[in-house]
From TrEMBL:
Gene Ontology MF term list: 5-methyltetrahydropteroyltriglutamate-homocysteine S-methyltransferase activity; zinc ion binding
Record Gene3D superfamilies: 3.20.20.210
Cobalamin-independent methionine synthase MetE C-terminal/archaeal domain ranges (all copies): 165-326
GO biological process: methionine biosynthetic process
Name the record gives this protein: Methionine synthase II (Cobalamin-independent)
Entries under InterPro entries matching the protein: Met_Synth_C/arc, UROD/MetE-like_sf
Organism: Naumannella cuiyingiana
Amino acid sequence: MMAGVRHAQVGSLPGTDFAAAARFALAETPDPSHLPELPARGAPAQLVGRATALAPGLAFDLQPAGWRLTGGALGVGDSADARRARALLRDDLDRFEEAAQGFVGPVTVSAAGPLTLAANVELPRGDKVLADPGARRDLGQALTEGLRGLVDELRGRLPDIEWSLQLDEPQAGAVLAGSVPTASGYDRHRPLPAPQAAQEYAELARALAGVPLGLHSCAAEFPWELSADLDSVSLDGERLGTRDRDEIARWLESGRELRLGVVPTTTPGRVPGVDEVIGRTLSVLRPLELGEAAVQNLVLTPACGLAGWSAADAHRVLRTLRDATEPVAEQLTR
């Protein structure tokens, strides 16, 4: 295969059998692979619930409106749902370790990013953490500490794997734009200034030094403001504006990894053919006229997770991406 074009998944997979999902991920996307998420198991296994399980020293419970800080100590203020989230994470790590015996190569672990987490988790007395700078800082620091500990643990369990982190930020654009609704639904939280968010991301990257760090968002308006200290970005190729194309060109010229979503995931079961995937990829990258630089660090992915798909269709998606990698490299380097 030419020029290093690869294929990958961006996180979630269908079903509730984690051991089977881990074997599937390791076999179908070996470079890079990923530690799967299975949201079908309920809120404790979904994006925000998963992140609460990574935040040491904080306690959470699950309300009809979503996850909430309790204000209590870890292990005291946690609800049954929060304990379930932590237990699921521990069990998943055990099962992934078993499935990955003998595997050598890169694996990505994904988690909710700090902006999306602040826009979803509520304070003990209501409203979002986003409304309280001190609480947002505490939650972000706990997440960073938890991610650092998770990578250290995984390196100890599976030292032959090259571990990286992917921060999922579907709501980063809304946080920066000031379009996140307040608890009442009648108002919006004030926008988080982009320089402040960028500084917080720089601090996060420093705290996770030595861990390759990526950002994924399949929402419109990719948050490039957060990307200065990152090693990879992952975005939906169908939702690009003029700014995105300019940023992609600069990104690839800098030698950093681009994970480009070229299989739409909003219609489960609609698996495009290889030629369609090639066409989507070329429509984004060929106008940039980057030649070899366009494919040196290119990874083809679904636009978002595949949790709502069948296992058979998820398999077909990843096989289609694999089959498109070599033709894409050939076309872009002619």
